[in-house]
UniProtKB/TrEMBL annotation:
It comes from Chryseobacterium arachidis. Binds 2 heme groups per subunit. One of its GO terms (cellular component) is periplasmic space. This is Methylamine utilization protein MauG. Signal peptide: none annotated. Binds 2 heme groups. It is found in: Periplasm.
Amino acid sequence: MKYVLSWILIASISILFLSNCLQPNVYKEISQDQSFIDKIRALYSSGDTSRWPEPQLHKMALANFSEIGHLPKVKYPQDNPYSAEKAALGKTLFYDPRLSVSNQIACASCHDPELGWTDNKTFSFGHDRQLGSRNAMTIMNIAFTQSLFWDGRAESIEQQSQMPIQDHKEMNEHIDLATDKIAKLKGYEILFEKAFGDKTVTKDKIAKAIATFERTLISPQSKFDKFIDGQANLFTDDEVMGMHLFRTKAQCMNCHNSGYFSNNQFENDGTALLGTKQQDLGRYIVTKNPGDVGKFRVPTLREITRTGPWMHNGAFTPLKDVLTFYNGGNPEPPKKRSTVHEGITLVSKKSEMLKPLNLTPKELQQLEAFLGTLSTRTQRFSPPVLPQ
Ligand code: HEC
Ligand code: HEC
């Protein structure tokens, strides 16, 4: 009996030891020596990602992981290929407030090119200045999402484009009435003819044109893209260290990965605030799967410094506060972890990948400096002339 107990003890200690070795150690300290910074600067800007230092990833992240890097080429769907004429029509519709019942609100009201294609508000206001309950996301680079909205409730950009028109708090117009209004404007005939080969206006064509326009909104080369292509001196030491922390100790790359800086998965970031007035069930609203409570789509970090306030509820500003939240392991107060919804008790379970990070104030500042390299300058964007 004594032996059995000792064997059990030895076995459990070994398992504990092994699992600790296999788990990437989030507390692994990173050197701040100049020689180390110079070394990783050379590797990261070598133009060859196979020479980059090994990332530190959580085992749960592996299935959906691909290395950060350039944005890929946009793929247009077979049933809605690109044409310049269709994108031009889409741009016009995107700016046309006559798609709304009040003739006052266009898509561009909440997705403004000068504000990183968002509205820089915590919550957008729409029809009759009603407040929505989620933060407007940027539509830059949405060509690379696999589902749309914070909860992924739209499966394609075409499908998504009709939803704000009909949303009571946004544009509040019936899609058929909106289509009729556009059809009555003589000036649109030529645009539809050029884009689709005939001038009849349908809601399907409106959706396809807007989606084609949106797929053209791709970030130009950022400082990050140029640095990894070989412009070694473009990054400051802090930005180099920030990139390294992002891939290692800070654990960001578990979810924000690929050229799009999102793995396109739904994760619980500890932001559901269940049982409070701000409660948001997130992905659960779409799937009704209790495991999806409080999960949101991992957003892109491209253009991130331009698209605040941050998170689905715009709860964080400045950006530094988001980093402080992650550094604390995304604390979710016990009182805000459960709620009864439609008679069912729902519990929010933050991702196991999120743990306190022990980043020093200097490291937090370096991480923030790196995030800045993912933004590009606001480009001049001339609004279209609206057809009469
Ligand atoms: C009243 C403000 C408002 C208007 C008007 C508006 N949007 Fe949005 N948009 C939002 C908000 C808020 C969200 C996030 C909503 C959510 O996730 O529930 C969003 C999300 C989106 C997304 C999803 C982005 C992503 O990464 O998933 C796209 C695409 C989009 N809007 C396009 C449009 C188009 C096209 C129009 C015009 C037909 C439009 N929006 C009109 C506020 C607005
Ligand atoms: C477990 C997956 C996961 C990890 C790890 C993770 N994030 Fe996130 N991130 C998310 C999700 C999900 C959201 C959206 C949460 C919400 O809206 O409530 C988000 C949102 C953000 C936002 C706000 C984006 C916006 O458009 O509002 C920033 C900035 C951000 N993360 C940065 C980071 C940084 C920096 C790290 C590393 C310290 C990190 N994230 C680690 C999943 C993750």
